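To the team - oxa(dethia)-CoA complex, inputs and output below.
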Amino acid sequence: MYTSKITGLGYFVPENIVTNDDLSKMMDTNDEWIQERTGIKERRWIEKGSGETSSSMGVKAAKIAIERSRLSKDDIDFIVFATLSPDMYFPGCGVQIQNLMDMPTIGALDIRNQCSGFVYALSVADQFIKTGMYKNILVIGAEYHSGGLDITTRGRGVSVIFGDGAGAAILSRSKKEGKGILSTHLHSEGKHAKELTVESPSIAHWVPELLKNTEDLSYFPYMNGTFVFKNAVVRFSEVILEGLQANNLSPEDIDLFIPHQANLRISQFVQKKFKLRDDQVFNNIQKYGNTTAASIIIALTEAWENGKVKDGDLVVLAAFGSGFTWGSVVIRW
Ligand code: UT7
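Output:
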């Protein structure tokens, strides 16, 4: 059995910065409310008409990750792409990457697990590496949220939170035991699917139905924020402990915890629960908002670029979101 380690990291965010004050010109909201409830100061939103998409941002992040791994695109033998905002209803973004990057006809898989998407994607890639099927896998998380948000007062409970961006990791085969990805744990609870959802268009409620009724806004994201928040803090804690216990580790052993950037208050709750110091936790939601499947990989890349991830460090990633789905990844760097 092999182990898998991260050999390259990259991220890309659009240049266009949207501050809380900018949002207050589009809807009835304000900087104080947003910062107090979420910690977010600004986010990046794709400039309308720029042609940027989840795939195109994914390509930019992937090129950086591949270069840093000292591999070439032709060394990659599988693509895993996590997003809830694909360029097309189908096919998925994985095949767009294969095409846009002019890669050999390798396999490409899309993961649809929203905020837990990158954790699920890493777990899937890890299994392929461990069994020996693939040597180098490109794992991408990317979101183009801004094109699908209700940017009026009606949608303010959701739209102020989300941002656009992409991150990529190269997962490579290694023979070093005790290093790399030590474990991944994944969960779901579909009975809460409708608490955080974009319901339409679905095959059961296709575009003509939507067009018939202008009051039908089920193509905008809906979130029962308080309910999601309450579940998030419980599931985050459970799945972090599950990952640590599976490796005979405890919270004190964590060198760096990178939570999915859903809400700074959620991250702070988890930090407090596990008595982690500020230097043991990395957050960047203040700058980018919640970028869903991209948030963990953007944060991990930024933390690594800032020298916060060192050889031998114990790095814990955890996510919770729509589905509900949640999961953790424990890495010995
Ligand atoms: O990443 C996937 C997982 N997602 C999450 O984990 C998100 C979890 N949930 C949350 O982060 C929080 O629930 C939110 C930040 C979304 C909302 O915070 P909240 O403290 O739960 O606020 P609320 O929805 O209970 O709304 C409180 C008040 C309401 O007004 P009334 O009814 O008290 O008069 C809302 O209408 O705040 C109002 N409100 C706003 N006011 C200004 C809601 N959104 C806004 C806004 N600006 N953007």
